[in-house]
Amino acid sequence: MNSDSRFETVLEFYNTHPINEHEIREKLRLDGNETGDFLQEELLKYDQDHYGGVAATDALASLANVTGATHVLDVGSGMGGPARYLVRQYGCRVSGLDLTESRVLGARRLTDLAGLSERIDFNRGNALDMPFEAASFDAVVSQETFLHVPDKATLLSECARVLKPGGRIAFTDILVTDKMDENTRTRLGAKMATNDLSSADTYRELLAGSGFDKIEVRDLSDEWRDILVKRLTMYRSLKEQTIKRFGEDGFRKWDDAYAFFVGLYRTGELGGGRFSATRLAD
Q: Which residues contact 154 (CB under 8 A, 6 or more apart)?
């Protein structure tokens, strides 16, 4: 869809991600819960591929004023776990946008399996050129996706364009600190498909310049440091499944990348933040 090498790196990263449709379905099968009334609840154990689980999604929903009447855009919707949770918990409508075709297709199949396809649609697209009309959504949410998108100014301008005036944006993202040097930034980009990482101050400025006000920021760095150590352990517990699907080299490459990434939280070179703002009227 896009020949830009920065996006090709992101596609490769997620096409070989340890959390994928196959792994989720295998966990459901082993639990004996591939179908049935409790499938939606069972999916929550395996499809929340972001930091903090459903509590993090609830925090964004609160900041974005999500209700049963809200149409939400989830940027970087992945396997669709947060979208399915939002629909179940709040009764809203959700449209997902993701760059990676395998994850869009997997999200659609899992959502159909859960019986939620009438209220959720997943779209393949570039967040820098969203395939939606202006003022299409009441809220935009995103969890640890913007780190993969270059040109944050265009990204946030696109979020503002598709939001209705008065609509809310709420997102979390990985943040760079002034402790990180250029060599480390380059290595991180190669290993974790990061693009133009931002700081909290940069996001404040970009939100204000993209047509947002009532900007709020919460530092999540300490909380995420603990979460990421546990996630590294979790990914390593998937070693057998990862090797079976992507080979020994695939597992070693992922393990090396994620261990390097987690180490940057320990040294304070990376942090995290939760952001929210309101779309100004034109």
A: 128
